[in-house]
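Inverse folding, one chain.
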């Protein structure tokens, strides 16, 4: 199924599974009239006779060939999901999970108290954050790093600061150039969340701007 949300700068974002992309583009032309197409490495722009536009983000750029075929291509993808309370790491072949590992570490929320007790709490929390991020990095190094030579891409999700901190680990340096796409918006990483990741990163993001 596709989903829709408002887009900054006007229009709305639509997420379309690659299996439905051909039908969606045909429907766009049916609703708005004949379309012209312009293509770049990272975007396909459809401009319709009535003035409507659809900006299709190319998944796993650069675009090779026709967009639908490109979006449907089966890829070997590493997935790294990190939030302060947990992490999930996996390798997928198409939508099939090849290997994965999920874990969690306790990180207390921020304290509203003041004085020395707040300072002690802050130091304890900082220590918990370091332990949690180290555990995520250790897992990524054990699960993803050995597969780096065979990966087509790496996608990340969760909290941006946490993901960036994990990727600073020198053991993960071979993965950094492979990171592509949007930060996946996911809840606390669990196995079920990891299993749903392919449906998120395979979807094509489309900004639709209706006629004036």
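Residues assigned per position:
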């Amino acid at each position: 199924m596709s989903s829709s949300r408002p887009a900054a700068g006007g229009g709305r974002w639509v997420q379309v599974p690659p299996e439905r992309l051909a039908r969606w583009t045909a429907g766009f032309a049916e609703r708005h009239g004949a379309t012209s197409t312009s293509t770049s490495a990272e975007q396909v722009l459809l401009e319709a006779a009535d003035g409507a536009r659809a900006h299709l983000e190319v998944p796993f750029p650069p675009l090779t060939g026709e967009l639908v075929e490109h979006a449907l291509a089966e890829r070997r993808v590493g997935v790294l999901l990190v939030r302060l309370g947990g992490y999930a790491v996996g390798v997928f072949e198409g939508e099939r999970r090849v290997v994965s590992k999920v874990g969690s570490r306790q990180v207390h929320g921020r304290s509203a108290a003041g004085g020395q007790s707040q300072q002690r709490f802050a130091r304890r929390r900082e220590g918990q954050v370091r332990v949690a991020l180290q555990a995520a990095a250790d897992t990524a190094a054990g699960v993803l790093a050995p597969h780096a030579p065979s990966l087509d891409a790496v996608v990340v999700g969760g909290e941006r600061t946490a993901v960036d901190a994990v990727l600073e680990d020198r053991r993960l340096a071979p993965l950094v150039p492979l990171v592509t796409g949007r930060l996946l918006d996911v809840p606390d990483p669990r196995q079920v969340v990891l299993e749903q990741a392919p449906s998120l990163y395979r979807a094509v993001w489309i900004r639709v701007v209706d006629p004036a």
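The longest strand covers residues 96-104. The chain has two domains: 3-72+202-209, 76-198.
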